[in-house]
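Give me the fold.
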Amino acid sequence: YVGVGRRGTSILNYCLSEMDDVEITALCDASPEALEKGRKLLTEKGRPEPILTSDYDVILNNPEIDAVVVMTGWSQGDFLMRGDKFILVSDVELVKEYIENIKKTL
């Protein structure tokens, strides 16, 4: 799960953490405070302790992780093309950049 700011925390709290068939394995954010807030939210809901990282490569390179939710406005669509994960993106501009990167490889 990338992006544990205001919007990311809301989706995590009211949606994903309530789904029995979703396991939040890792949280990624540049802010240590946001990571701790997300960790606390999950553990208080009885979820396992997640991996906390500021490096999204930790998530992309983890074979235990099947999918990544991206809740940031990062303009780094290249990371979507690396790894073998399903990606859920909340930022339209990030998706556009991703599509442009794919076009360049065709």
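The longest strand covers residues 67-70.
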